[in-house]
Design a protein that fits this description.
22% strand, alpha+beta, eight-stranded mixed sheet
Amino acid sequence: MGEVEIVESGSLNSLTTGWENYGERTRIMLLGARADRHALRNHGRTVAIEETAVSVFYRPREERAEMEACGINHSAASFQFVDVAMADLGRWMQPLIGQGWSRGEVAIVAAEGASFESESWVCFHHPAMSIPSEIPLCESPASISRKAFVTHPGPILDSVSESDMDAIVASMASEIAAVVDENVHDEIDSIDVEQSVIEQVSEPITENQEEELPVIEPKEESPLEAELRQVISLLVAGGQEMGDIMEHPQFIEVSERASAAGVDVWGMFVRLSDDS
C-alpha cells in the first residue's frame, strides 16, 4: 500500500521533472463526485504501486460559467489530474474500475482569457458523472499548482476505521440507485400505457393456446472468466488498444488457462471489444 505525502503547492510538471528517465509514465484525469474528494485524496493508501505517483485537484473558479455552458455541473464534480507510472496505471485504477468507473477521452481547452493549446486527456469518470466532450480551464492541467498528493510505494501511512473506498461505494450506490429508481418508474408508466392499449385491441388467449415459456437461468461467471474479464479491462485502462491486447503477455497467460478450461475466450474478447 502507498504512503501519501502532502505538498502544499506543486504541479504535475514541477513535481515529476526527470521522472520519465526512469520509466514510461502517463497522465490521466479523474472526474469524480464532489462527495468522493476526501476519499480520492487518500486513494494512494489503498493501492500497491511500484513507482511514485502525483495527483493534483483543481477547483474551477473563473471558468465556472463556461463549464455550465458545456453542461458541466462543477459544483457536484471533483477534478483530479494524476501522473503515474504506466506500469502502475492498472493498479491505480483497479479499485475504481471494479466500482464502475469508465474510461473515455476529454479535450481540455483554454477558457476565456487563457492561452494554451488544446490537450486530449484520458479521463476515468465516476458512473454517476457524465463525461463532457471538452472542459474549459484557465490553466493547462500539468501546470496547475495546488496542494498535491504524492503517493510513494510503502506501508499504509495511517489506519482508518472506515475505509475511504467504502465512502466512494456508498455515494456511488445512492446516486446510481436514484437514477435506476427514476428509470424504473418511467418504464412502469410506459408499460401500463402499452398494456392498456393492448388489452383494448387484443383477443383473450384461451388456456389451450397458452404456451409456458422456458425459464432461462443466467449463467454464473467462472473464476477464470472473471479473471480474464479483469485482465482485459485493466489493459484497456492502461491504454492498450483492443487489437494489441491479444499479444500482451498478461492476456496470453490467462487466456491459455481459460481456453484449457473450456472458456470461450474469443467470444468474451469480442463482447468486451464491442463494449469498449
